[in-house]
Amino acid sequence: MNRQVDPTSLVQAPSLPGPHEGYMPGWANDFETEALPGALPQGMNSPQKCNYGLYGEQLSGTAFTANPPERTWTYRIRPSVKHSARYTRIDVPYWKSAPHVPQDVTSLGQYRWDPVPHSDEPLTWITGMRTMTTAGDVNTQVGMASHVYLVNTSMKDAYFFSADSELLVVPQEGRLRFATELGIIDLEPKEIAIIPRGLVYRVEVLDGPCRGFVCENYGQKFELPGRGPIGANCLANPRDFKAPVAAFEDREVPSTLTIKWCGQFHETRIPQSPLDVVAWHGNYAPYKYDLRTYCPVGAILFDHPDPSIFTVLTAPSGVPGTANIDFVLFRERWLVAEDTFRPPWYHKNIMSELMGNIYGQYDAKPQGFIPGGVSLHNMMLPHGPDKNAFEGASNANLGPDKLDNTMSFMFETRFPQHLTEFAGKEAPLQDDYIDCWDSLEKKFDGTPGKK
Q1: Which of 3-7, 190-194, 274-278, 414-418 comes out lowest in average pLDDT?
Q2: Residue 131 predicted with pLDDT over 60
Q3: Are the CB atoms for 252 and 206 separated by under 8 Å?
Q4: Catalytic residue among 20, 100, 281, 304
């Protein structure tokens, strides 16, 4: 099923030259952009009268007194209060929020799923969301939820924003367009997008059907991890994140706006498009990032470092060094460590680990963990390589070896992840996954010096 959208009706700012066409590079920059010349006030935020008859409005992503505050000033055709009317509660049955602990689903275990299959039913960004796990509490703004999205239909004169969370979007199949209040983000596999809390947007299918993964972050915003002794280079570089240039719609057409608020969904009807920001400046914005620009680092003599070395983004908690969420990427890389078991070792972890496969083969699970698939190893449950991976790594010729054609990721959180009814009863669970360790053998030999 392939659905093409009509060309976007947004009026976009003049393109930047070179590789940044349509985007501005940098992470947490104070950007400024305008789709009409002179629409952006200079030297002040709130003039008595804005050019073009625009309204000045601030979107704040943190408390005013946060250091530094995250906020963006927008200059729009109508203030947001004109895009808000009486709300009606609606049911979105497959999109769940924490705390969500079904009584008849067991979350204690090691789990893996085949890719959630596409559907012939028309599914938009909202109706196609399938929650797999929830963690923490959306009401107290801690924790997360993980989702698989299935999208084959564009949102037509329909818009959405989450008051609960920012969304980290990881495509696996198909191409999507996020037409947001602050500009356009086109997204494809091997890229990610970060959509801030409170930002209004519409999702269109550019090439479908589309499937991917979403980490819904209830807590502090994602940020680049501290590099410590790694220093200034490698991992995810700030310049490789791209924020969109200003774009706006001036369309008088009956529209719906759906809001996710404290885990509930509400809908309001308005007589125009809410994507009417003509100019903006600030540091609270959506981003896209090409995962192929992520530069991994690792051991170059012996031993296998902690997987935290592969962190792309982290959302801090109140506990230093313990994240609310880490987004970790396992991509192509060279393995060179001597006298070392190179795949991930067997371990139990205080963090709960949900993994997804974007493409290729994951080195610790060469069988069964296929592109589009998901696995979950909850807090303090042991896991590690299956027998084939263990035997292969234990007996391999340890010359330089490139892991090629592989890209998997992990949503890792300090909270236990609870399965939803969909994950426990409807998603294609691999019932025999736990058996992948059954064939591991006792190898103990008490002879001194024996390996």
Answers
A1: 3-7
A2: yes
A3: no
A4: 304
Sequence-separated contacts (24+) of 310-315 with Cβ below 8 Å: 311/225, 311/235, 312/192, 312/225, 312/235, 312/236, 313/168, 313/194, 313/222, 313/223, 313/224, 313/225, 313/236, 314/222, 314/223, 314/224, 314/225, 315/144, 315/217, 315/219, 315/220, 315/221, 315/222, 315/223
pLDDT for 7 beyond 70? no
Provide the CATH topology of domain 295-434. Answer: Jelly Rolls (2.60.120)
Give ranges for CATH 2.60.120.10 in the chain. Answer: 23-99+122-291, 295-434
Query: Which pLDDT score is estimated for 202?
Result: 98
What local confidence, expressed as pLDDT, does residue 58 receive? 97
State residue 6's pLDDT score.
43
Closest CA to 56 of 37, 77, 35: 77
**Would you say 273 and 249 are in contact if contact means Cβ atoms under 8 Å apart?**
yes
Distance CA 294, CA 248 (A): 31
170-to-92, 106, 110, 213 alpha-carbon distances in Å? 21, 27, 23, 5
Task: Give me the pLDDT at residue 320, please.
Answer: 86
Element (H, E) at 72: strand 71-76
Sheet with 55-60, edge to edge strand ranges: 31-34, 277-282, 71-76, 55-60
Q: Which of 204, 221, 200 is nearest to 280 (CA)?
A: 200
Bridge partners (DSSP) of residue 11 are 248
Judge contact between 389 and 369, C-beta under 8 A: no
For 26: left if phi > 0, alpha if psi spans -120 to 50, otherwise beta; the answer is left
d(CA 138, CA 262): 6
CA dihedral 199, 71, 329, 428 (to 10 degrees): -20
**pLDDT at position 331 over 90:** yes
DSSP letter (8 states) at residue 12: E
Helix boundaries (H) for 309-422: 387-394, 421
304 belongs to the catalytic site: yes
Tell me the CATH number for domain 23-99+122-291. 2.60.120.10
Q: Are 304 and 344 in contact (CB under 8 A)?
A: yes
Q: Collapsing DSSP states into helix, strand and coil, what is residue 52?
A: helix
Residue 383 to residue 344: CA distance in whole angstroms: 10
> What are 382's two structure tokens?
């042991």
- Tokens 């078991």, residue? 341
